Amino acid sequence: MENRDKTIIKTSIIGIIVNLLLSSFKALVGMLSHSIAIVLDAVNNLSDALSSIITIVGTKLASKKPDKKHPLGHGRIEYLSAMLVAAIILYAGVTSLIESINKIISPDKPEYSKISILLLVVAIITKIILGTYVKKKGEEVNSGSLTASGKDALFDAIISTSVLASAIIFLISGLSLEAYVGVIISLVIIKAGFEVMSETVSDILGRRPDPEFAIGIKKLISEEPEVRGAYDLIINNYGPDRNYASVHVELPDIMTVDEVDQLTRRLQVKVFKEMGVVLTGVGVYSYNTKDNEAARIRNEVQKIVLSHDWALQLHGFYVDLSDKYMRFDTVLSFEIEHAEAVSILQKELKEKYPDYKIEITPDIDLSDLV
Protein backbone atom coordinates (compact mmCIF):
# COMPACT_ATOMS: atom_id res chain seq x y z
CA MET A 1 0.00 0.00 0.00
CA GLU A 2 2.88 2.35 0.81
CA ASN A 3 4.50 1.74 -2.60
CA ARG A 4 1.11 2.33 -4.23
CA ASP A 5 0.74 5.73 -2.55
CA LYS A 6 4.28 6.71 -3.51
CA THR A 7 3.62 5.79 -7.15
CA ILE A 8 0.41 7.85 -7.23
CA ILE A 9 2.06 10.90 -5.65
CA LYS A 10 5.18 10.71 -7.82
CA THR A 11 3.13 10.34 -11.02
CA SER A 12 0.80 13.17 -9.99
CA ILE A 13 3.75 15.52 -9.30
CA ILE A 14 5.14 14.80 -12.78
CA GLY A 15 1.69 15.57 -14.20
CA ILE A 16 1.49 18.87 -12.28
CA ILE A 17 4.89 20.08 -13.51
CA VAL A 18 4.25 19.14 -17.14
CA ASN A 19 0.74 20.62 -17.18
CA LEU A 20 1.84 23.89 -15.59
CA LEU A 21 4.61 24.27 -18.19
CA LEU A 22 2.24 23.45 -21.05
CA SER A 23 -0.42 25.78 -19.68
CA SER A 24 2.06 28.67 -19.43
CA PHE A 25 3.36 28.18 -22.98
CA LYS A 26 -0.11 27.79 -24.47
CA ALA A 27 -1.51 30.79 -22.62
CA LEU A 28 1.36 32.96 -23.91
CA VAL A 29 0.99 31.69 -27.48
CA GLY A 30 -2.81 32.04 -27.31
CA MET A 31 -2.68 35.65 -26.16
CA LEU A 32 -0.01 36.64 -28.69
CA SER A 33 -1.88 35.01 -31.56
CA HIS A 34 -5.36 36.08 -30.30
CA SER A 35 -6.43 32.42 -30.48
CA ILE A 36 -9.34 31.47 -28.23
CA ALA A 37 -8.79 27.77 -29.02
CA ILE A 38 -5.18 27.84 -27.75
CA VAL A 39 -6.18 29.84 -24.64
CA LEU A 40 -8.92 27.28 -23.84
CA ASP A 41 -6.38 24.50 -24.35
CA ALA A 42 -4.15 26.26 -21.79
CA VAL A 43 -7.03 26.50 -19.31
CA ASN A 44 -7.66 22.78 -19.80
CA ASN A 45 -4.02 22.01 -18.94
CA LEU A 46 -4.32 24.19 -15.83
CA SER A 47 -7.38 22.20 -14.72
CA ASP A 48 -5.33 19.01 -15.23
CA ALA A 49 -2.67 20.33 -12.87
CA LEU A 50 -5.34 21.11 -10.27
CA SER A 51 -6.78 17.61 -10.72
CA SER A 52 -3.36 16.11 -9.99
CA ILE A 53 -3.08 18.19 -6.81
CA ILE A 54 -6.48 16.86 -5.68
CA THR A 55 -5.32 13.31 -6.48
CA ILE A 56 -2.30 13.76 -4.19
CA VAL A 57 -4.41 15.17 -1.35
CA GLY A 58 -6.98 12.36 -1.78
CA THR A 59 -4.28 9.69 -1.73
CA LYS A 60 -2.73 11.14 1.43
CA LEU A 61 -6.09 11.25 3.22
CA ALA A 62 -7.09 7.78 1.99
CA SER A 63 -3.87 6.26 3.37
CA LYS A 64 -4.70 7.31 6.95
CA LYS A 65 -4.83 4.39 9.34
CA PRO A 66 -8.20 3.08 10.61
CA ASP A 67 -9.51 4.78 13.73
CA LYS A 68 -12.43 4.42 16.13
CA LYS A 69 -14.84 6.32 13.87
CA HIS A 70 -13.63 4.66 10.65
CA PRO A 71 -12.56 1.11 11.61
CA LEU A 72 -12.31 0.03 7.95
CA GLY A 73 -9.98 2.86 6.99
CA HIS A 74 -10.36 5.95 4.81
CA GLY A 75 -9.84 4.39 1.37
CA ARG A 76 -13.13 5.67 -0.09
CA ILE A 77 -11.78 9.22 0.06
CA GLU A 78 -10.05 8.36 -3.22
CA TYR A 79 -13.48 8.09 -4.85
CA LEU A 80 -14.39 11.54 -3.55
CA SER A 81 -11.17 12.97 -4.96
CA ALA A 82 -11.96 11.35 -8.33
CA MET A 83 -15.38 13.02 -8.19
CA LEU A 84 -13.74 16.41 -7.56
CA VAL A 85 -11.49 15.80 -10.57
CA ALA A 86 -14.61 15.08 -12.64
CA ALA A 87 -16.25 18.28 -11.37
CA ILE A 88 -13.20 20.33 -12.39
CA ILE A 89 -13.20 18.75 -15.85
CA LEU A 90 -16.91 19.53 -16.24
CA TYR A 91 -16.43 23.13 -15.09
CA ALA A 92 -13.56 23.62 -17.54
CA GLY A 93 -15.71 22.16 -20.34
CA VAL A 94 -18.77 24.30 -19.63
CA THR A 95 -16.81 27.58 -19.27
CA SER A 96 -14.88 26.76 -22.45
CA LEU A 97 -18.13 26.12 -24.32
CA ILE A 98 -19.57 29.48 -23.24
CA GLU A 99 -16.40 31.31 -24.26
CA SER A 100 -16.29 29.54 -27.65
CA ILE A 101 -19.91 30.44 -28.40
CA ASN A 102 -19.16 34.06 -27.53
CA LYS A 103 -16.26 34.01 -30.02
CA ILE A 104 -18.55 32.64 -32.73
CA ILE A 105 -20.91 35.56 -32.10
CA SER A 106 -18.08 38.14 -31.85
CA PRO A 107 -15.09 36.62 -33.69
CA ASP A 108 -11.44 37.75 -33.39
CA LYS A 109 -9.02 37.21 -36.24
CA PRO A 110 -6.11 34.99 -35.06
CA GLU A 111 -2.45 35.67 -35.92
CA TYR A 112 -0.59 32.37 -36.00
CA SER A 113 3.18 32.16 -36.43
CA LYS A 114 5.64 29.35 -37.12
CA ILE A 115 6.67 29.38 -33.44
CA SER A 116 3.07 28.92 -32.28
CA ILE A 117 2.64 26.01 -34.69
CA LEU A 118 5.87 24.41 -33.44
CA LEU A 119 4.81 24.80 -29.80
CA LEU A 120 1.49 23.10 -30.54
CA VAL A 121 3.31 20.14 -32.11
CA VAL A 122 5.58 19.84 -29.06
CA ALA A 123 2.54 20.09 -26.74
CA ILE A 124 0.75 17.30 -28.59
CA ILE A 125 3.74 14.94 -28.37
CA THR A 126 4.25 15.82 -24.69
CA LYS A 127 0.58 15.15 -23.85
CA ILE A 128 0.60 11.77 -25.61
CA ILE A 129 3.68 10.70 -23.64
CA LEU A 130 2.29 12.06 -20.34
CA GLY A 131 -1.18 10.56 -20.86
CA THR A 132 0.16 7.12 -21.72
CA TYR A 133 2.50 7.17 -18.72
CA VAL A 134 -0.11 8.37 -16.19
CA LYS A 135 -2.82 5.99 -17.44
CA LYS A 136 -0.42 3.03 -17.28
CA LYS A 137 0.63 3.89 -13.72
CA GLY A 138 -3.02 4.36 -12.70
CA GLU A 139 -3.94 0.91 -14.00
CA GLU A 140 -0.88 -0.65 -12.34
CA VAL A 141 -1.84 0.63 -8.87
CA ASN A 142 -5.64 0.58 -9.39
CA SER A 143 -6.07 4.34 -8.91
CA GLY A 144 -9.28 5.75 -10.40
CA SER A 145 -8.06 9.35 -10.09
CA LEU A 146 -4.74 8.61 -11.78
CA THR A 147 -6.33 6.60 -14.59
CA ALA A 148 -8.86 9.40 -15.17
CA SER A 149 -6.03 11.96 -15.33
CA GLY A 150 -4.19 9.81 -17.88
CA LYS A 151 -7.27 9.47 -20.08
CA ASP A 152 -7.86 13.21 -19.81
CA ALA A 153 -4.29 13.90 -20.93
CA LEU A 154 -4.80 11.71 -24.01
CA PHE A 155 -8.01 13.63 -24.71
CA ASP A 156 -5.94 16.81 -24.47
CA ALA A 157 -3.62 15.52 -27.18
CA ILE A 158 -6.62 15.07 -29.47
CA ILE A 159 -7.86 18.55 -28.54
CA SER A 160 -4.46 20.12 -29.26
CA THR A 161 -4.35 18.30 -32.61
CA SER A 162 -7.68 19.86 -33.57
CA VAL A 163 -6.33 23.29 -32.59
CA LEU A 164 -3.23 22.64 -34.73
CA ALA A 165 -5.41 21.60 -37.66
CA SER A 166 -7.50 24.78 -37.43
CA ALA A 167 -4.31 26.88 -37.30
CA ILE A 168 -2.90 25.19 -40.43
CA ILE A 169 -6.22 25.63 -42.25
CA PHE A 170 -6.19 29.35 -41.36
CA LEU A 171 -2.61 29.81 -42.58
CA ILE A 172 -3.38 28.06 -45.88
CA SER A 173 -6.86 29.41 -46.67
CA GLY A 174 -7.46 32.31 -44.28
CA LEU A 175 -10.56 30.50 -42.98
CA SER A 176 -10.89 30.83 -39.17
CA LEU A 177 -12.42 27.75 -37.57
CA GLU A 178 -10.93 28.08 -34.11
CA ALA A 179 -14.12 29.20 -32.33
CA TYR A 180 -15.94 26.17 -33.77
CA VAL A 181 -12.99 23.98 -32.81
CA GLY A 182 -13.32 25.49 -29.33
CA VAL A 183 -16.93 24.25 -29.19
CA ILE A 184 -15.81 20.74 -30.17
CA ILE A 185 -13.03 20.87 -27.56
CA SER A 186 -15.52 21.92 -24.90
CA LEU A 187 -17.94 19.11 -25.75
CA VAL A 188 -15.13 16.52 -25.62
CA ILE A 189 -14.07 17.86 -22.20
CA ILE A 190 -17.66 17.76 -20.90
CA LYS A 191 -18.11 14.18 -22.17
CA ALA A 192 -14.90 13.11 -20.42
CA GLY A 193 -16.06 14.75 -17.19
CA PHE A 194 -19.41 12.96 -17.27
CA GLU A 195 -17.69 9.60 -17.88
CA VAL A 196 -15.34 10.05 -14.91
CA MET A 197 -18.25 11.21 -12.72
CA SER A 198 -20.38 8.22 -13.76
CA GLU A 199 -17.59 5.73 -13.01
CA THR A 200 -16.94 7.28 -9.60
CA VAL A 201 -20.62 7.39 -8.62
CA SER A 202 -20.86 3.68 -9.51
CA ASP A 203 -17.91 2.95 -7.20
CA ILE A 204 -19.51 4.89 -4.34
CA LEU A 205 -22.96 3.31 -4.83
CA GLY A 206 -21.42 -0.16 -5.04
CA ARG A 207 -21.14 -1.80 -8.42
CA ARG A 208 -21.27 -5.47 -9.32
CA PRO A 209 -17.82 -6.97 -8.77
CA ASP A 210 -15.65 -7.88 -11.72
CA PRO A 211 -17.00 -11.27 -12.94
CA GLU A 212 -13.58 -12.93 -13.15
CA PHE A 213 -12.71 -11.69 -9.65
CA ALA A 214 -15.97 -12.97 -8.10
CA ILE A 215 -15.84 -16.30 -9.91
CA GLY A 216 -12.18 -16.69 -8.88
CA ILE A 217 -13.13 -16.36 -5.19
CA LYS A 218 -15.98 -18.87 -5.53
CA LYS A 219 -13.81 -21.41 -7.33
CA LEU A 220 -11.11 -21.01 -4.70
CA ILE A 221 -13.63 -21.77 -1.95
CA SER A 222 -15.18 -24.67 -3.87
CA GLU A 223 -11.77 -26.37 -4.16
CA GLU A 224 -12.17 -27.56 -0.56
CA PRO A 225 -13.42 -31.18 -0.65
CA GLU A 226 -16.22 -30.54 1.87
CA VAL A 227 -17.66 -27.58 -0.08
CA ARG A 228 -20.28 -28.47 -2.69
CA GLY A 229 -20.76 -24.86 -3.77
CA ALA A 230 -20.17 -21.20 -2.83
CA TYR A 231 -23.12 -18.79 -3.05
CA ASP A 232 -24.40 -15.32 -2.09
CA LEU A 233 -20.96 -13.74 -2.44
CA ILE A 234 -21.11 -10.09 -1.35
CA ILE A 235 -18.00 -7.94 -1.82
CA ASN A 236 -17.88 -4.59 -0.02
CA ASN A 237 -15.26 -2.18 -1.28
CA TYR A 238 -13.69 0.37 1.07
CA GLY A 239 -11.25 1.87 -1.41
CA PRO A 240 -8.96 0.46 -4.11
CA ASP A 241 -7.65 -2.99 -3.15
CA ARG A 242 -9.60 -2.92 0.13
CA ASN A 243 -12.26 -5.59 -0.23
CA TYR A 244 -14.28 -7.31 2.48
CA ALA A 245 -16.58 -10.19 1.59
CA SER A 246 -19.13 -12.64 2.95
CA VAL A 247 -20.27 -15.90 1.38
CA HIS A 248 -22.42 -18.97 1.96
CA VAL A 249 -20.99 -22.45 1.47
CA GLU A 250 -22.94 -25.67 1.02
CA LEU A 251 -21.70 -28.42 3.35
CA PRO A 252 -22.79 -31.98 4.19
CA ASP A 253 -25.23 -32.27 7.09
CA ILE A 254 -22.89 -34.63 8.96
CA MET A 255 -20.17 -32.04 9.66
CA THR A 256 -19.65 -30.98 13.28
CA VAL A 257 -19.40 -27.36 14.45
CA ASP A 258 -15.69 -27.90 15.13
CA GLU A 259 -15.12 -29.13 11.56
CA VAL A 260 -17.05 -26.16 10.13
CA ASP A 261 -15.01 -23.78 12.29
CA GLN A 262 -11.71 -25.24 11.03
CA LEU A 263 -12.92 -25.06 7.43
CA THR A 264 -14.04 -21.44 7.82
CA ARG A 265 -10.67 -20.34 9.19
CA ARG A 266 -8.88 -22.22 6.42
CA LEU A 267 -11.01 -20.46 3.80
CA GLN A 268 -10.37 -17.03 5.31
CA VAL A 269 -6.60 -17.50 5.15
CA LYS A 270 -6.74 -18.96 1.63
CA VAL A 271 -8.95 -16.22 0.14
CA PHE A 272 -6.91 -13.41 1.69
CA LYS A 273 -3.59 -14.91 0.64
CA GLU A 274 -4.57 -15.59 -2.98
CA MET A 275 -7.18 -12.87 -3.69
CA GLY A 276 -6.38 -10.13 -1.16
CA VAL A 277 -9.97 -10.24 0.14
CA VAL A 278 -10.88 -10.30 3.84
CA LEU A 279 -13.59 -12.93 4.29
CA THR A 280 -15.57 -11.44 7.18
CA GLY A 281 -18.39 -13.96 7.25
CA VAL A 282 -19.02 -17.52 6.08
CA GLY A 283 -22.61 -18.73 6.27
CA VAL A 284 -23.56 -22.38 5.92
CA TYR A 285 -26.16 -24.31 3.91
CA SER A 286 -26.46 -28.01 4.71
CA TYR A 287 -27.37 -30.64 2.17
CA ASN A 288 -28.77 -34.13 2.71
CA THR A 289 -26.32 -37.00 2.65
CA LYS A 290 -28.30 -39.80 4.29
CA ASP A 291 -31.21 -40.44 1.95
CA ASN A 292 -31.52 -40.97 -1.81
CA GLU A 293 -35.15 -39.83 -1.61
CA ALA A 294 -33.94 -36.36 -0.54
CA ALA A 295 -31.70 -36.17 -3.61
CA ARG A 296 -34.62 -37.18 -5.85
CA ILE A 297 -36.86 -34.47 -4.38
CA ARG A 298 -34.12 -31.88 -4.77
CA ASN A 299 -33.77 -32.69 -8.47
CA GLU A 300 -37.54 -32.41 -8.98
CA VAL A 301 -37.73 -29.09 -7.13
CA GLN A 302 -34.77 -27.72 -9.05
CA LYS A 303 -36.42 -28.68 -12.36
CA ILE A 304 -39.62 -26.83 -11.40
CA VAL A 305 -37.80 -23.70 -10.14
CA LEU A 306 -35.35 -23.38 -13.04
CA SER A 307 -38.11 -23.82 -15.62
CA HIS A 308 -38.66 -20.07 -15.17
CA ASP A 309 -36.28 -17.68 -16.99
CA TRP A 310 -36.19 -15.35 -13.99
CA ALA A 311 -35.01 -18.12 -11.63
CA LEU A 312 -31.23 -18.21 -12.12
CA GLN A 313 -30.08 -20.70 -9.50
CA LEU A 314 -31.21 -22.94 -6.64
CA HIS A 315 -28.98 -23.69 -3.66
CA GLY A 316 -29.07 -24.38 0.06
CA PHE A 317 -31.67 -27.10 -0.46
CA TYR A 318 -32.58 -29.24 2.53
CA VAL A 319 -35.54 -31.52 3.11
CA ASP A 320 -36.76 -33.26 6.26
CA LEU A 321 -38.73 -36.29 5.09
CA SER A 322 -40.21 -37.15 8.49
CA ASP A 323 -41.43 -33.62 9.34
CA LYS A 324 -42.44 -32.89 5.74
CA TYR A 325 -40.41 -29.73 5.51
CA MET A 326 -38.13 -28.32 2.79
CA ARG A 327 -36.17 -25.11 2.40
CA PHE A 328 -33.96 -23.58 -0.27
CA ASP A 329 -32.70 -20.29 -1.70
CA THR A 330 -33.27 -19.24 -5.29
CA VAL A 331 -31.39 -16.48 -7.12
CA LEU A 332 -33.81 -14.22 -8.99
CA SER A 333 -33.16 -11.85 -11.85
CA PHE A 334 -34.07 -8.16 -11.60
CA GLU A 335 -36.99 -8.74 -14.00
CA ILE A 336 -39.42 -9.94 -11.31
CA GLU A 337 -40.50 -8.85 -7.84
CA HIS A 338 -39.41 -11.23 -5.10
CA ALA A 339 -42.91 -11.57 -3.62
CA GLU A 340 -44.38 -12.45 -7.01
CA ALA A 341 -41.68 -15.03 -7.73
CA VAL A 342 -42.03 -16.71 -4.32
CA SER A 343 -45.82 -16.83 -4.74
CA ILE A 344 -45.53 -18.53 -8.14
CA LEU A 345 -43.00 -21.09 -6.88
CA GLN A 346 -44.99 -21.81 -3.70
CA LYS A 347 -48.11 -22.53 -5.76
CA GLU A 348 -46.31 -24.85 -8.19
CA LEU A 349 -44.44 -26.76 -5.49
CA LYS A 350 -47.53 -27.11 -3.30
CA GLU A 351 -49.27 -28.84 -6.19
CA LYS A 352 -46.37 -31.31 -6.33
CA TYR A 353 -45.82 -31.61 -2.55
CA PRO A 354 -49.14 -30.69 -0.86
CA ASP A 355 -48.12 -32.17 2.51
CA TYR A 356 -44.87 -30.22 2.80
CA LYS A 357 -44.17 -26.93 4.47
CA ILE A 358 -42.00 -25.06 1.94
CA GLU A 359 -39.70 -22.19 2.86
CA ILE A 360 -38.23 -20.22 -0.07
CA THR A 361 -35.64 -17.47 0.43
CA PRO A 362 -35.21 -15.16 -2.59
CA ASP A 363 -31.67 -14.03 -3.39
CA ILE A 364 -30.39 -11.21 -5.62
CA ASP A 365 -27.90 -11.96 -8.39
CA LEU A 366 -25.06 -10.19 -6.55
CA SER A 367 -22.22 -11.61 -8.63
CA ASP A 368 -21.94 -13.65 -11.79
CA LEU A 369 -22.89 -17.26 -11.12
CA VAL A 370 -20.32 -20.03 -11.33
Indicate the topology.
Elements: H1 2-33, H2 36-62, H3 77-105, H4 114-140, H5 144-173, H6 178-205, H7 211-222, E1 229-237, E2 243-252, H8 257-275, E3 277-287, H9 292-305, E4 311-320, E5 325-332, H10 338-352, E6 357-364
Parallel strand pairs: 2-3, 5-6
Antiparallel strand pairs: 1-2, 4-5
Q: What's the short story on this structure?
A:
The chain is α/β, with parallel strands linked by helices.
Strand ordering within the main sheet = 1-2-3
Low-confidence stretches: none
Mean pLDDT: 83
Helical region count?
10
Number of strands: 6
Query: Distance between termini?
Result: 31 Å
Biggest sheet: strands, sense, closure?
A: 3 strands, mixed
- Principal-axes shape call: elongated
Rg, rounded, reads: 29 Å
Strand content: 15-25%
Helix residue percentage: 55-70%
Structural class: alpha/beta
The run of helices and strands is HHHHHHHEEHEHEEHE
